Amino acid sequence: MIPEDAEIRRAVKPVICYPTETLPQLDLALYGAARQGGRKVDEVRVPPREARAFGVPAGHFFRITSVEGPQVGDLNLWNANDLSERFYSGKTRALHGTHLTVGDRMWSSFPTLRPMATIVEDTLNWYGIDGFGGSVHDVIGTRCDPYTNNLLNGGQYHHCCHSNLTRAFASETGFSIAESEPHIHDVLNVFMCTGFTRDTGQYFMKASPVRPGDYIEFFAEIDLMGALSACPGGDCSAEHSSDEAACFPLQVDVFASDPKVLEAWAEPEPNGYDRSHGA
């Protein structure tokens, strides 16, 4: 039964949960100057429907580029020196919104809760929010995985991004598959165009606007190990977890920064909460 004051309740104005004015201020000009004097020190090509791991020292940059054709990627990040500290997509979403772009940061899990990486360039920044409510680089989708695929479609599909990232993590660390899987976490969906339907509130995807040569670039705030999966959905225009979608490689390039520019820069400290929890 609809209450008499239903419309009054619906008309209550929203309040931003986490105002971000008190977050540490970004110095994008400093990052830009450090990048200008940098040089490429590593590159990793991620094959279609596979994942690869890579390392980025603190103060370096890494760029993810679309090559050969439109392709989305699923990105995991860890503290290279402590794998228990990893990307926290939910808190990143709460602080910055459902989709990330220049000036937004990828925050780490509790108890450290600090910036892991800062987005400094994004060639898809022009896309904004389209008429369907869609936007690019989301932190709302978890990653395609074989468990949901089995639930909805049956079968044993091993090239979902969750499995791809598990294999890449195992290959990089020497851990077994069973040891590696718990380290895989919710992702930044690089280049993926997503949103929520206005009528049912369901998570949707649509063809990514990414084209060969488009890229997103990050500054590593701490020593990072990353893993990137070239999603089996290709540009996610129709389906994911599929061997039928057209898929293309992605490239990760790592750039050293100009150390003179970053002389006064310091990596962010772990969160200052004392962890007593009132006990």
Element order, helices and strands?
HHEEEEEHEEEHHHEEEEE
N- to C-terminal separation? 44 Å
* Mean pLDDT over the full residue set: 96
Q: Please give the number of β-strands.
A: 13
The rounded Rg comes to: 19 Å
Count of alpha and pi helical runs: 6
Gross geometry: globular
The count of domains is 1
The portion of residues forming beta strands comes to: 25-35%
Sheet/helix structural class: alpha+beta
Q: Catalogue the unreliable spans.
A: none
Largest sheet: 7 strands, antiparallel
- State the helicity in percent bands: 10-25%
Write the layout of secondary structure elements.
Layout: H1 6-10, H2 28-36, E1 39-46, E2 51-56, E3 61-66, E4 73-79, E5 82-86, H3 89-96, E6 105-107, E7 115-122, E8 135-138, H4 146-153, H5 161-173, H6 177-180, E9 188-196, E10 203-206, E11 215-220, E12 224-230, E13 250-256
Antiparallel strand pairs: 1-13, 2-12, 3-11, 3-13, 4-5, 4-9, 4-12, 6-7, 7-11, 8-9, 9-10
Structural notes for this entry:
With 279 residues, this protein is α+β, with helices and mostly antiparallel strands. The chain has one domain (41-256). It is built from six helices and 13 strands. The protein has helices at 6-10, 28-36, 89-96, 146-153, 161-173, 177-180, and strands at 39-46, 51-56, 61-66, 73-79, 82-86, 105-107, 115-122, 135-138, 188-196, 203-206, 215-220, 224-230, 250-256. The strands form two sheets. Strands 2, 4, 5, 8, 9, 10 and 12 form a seven-stranded antiparallel β-sheet that branches. It has a six-stranded antiparallel β-sheet with strand order 1-13-3-11-7-6. The longest helix is centred in the middle third of the chain and has 13 residues, at 161-173. It is globular and about 65 Å long. The termini are far apart. The model has no long low-confidence stretch (mean pLDDT 96).
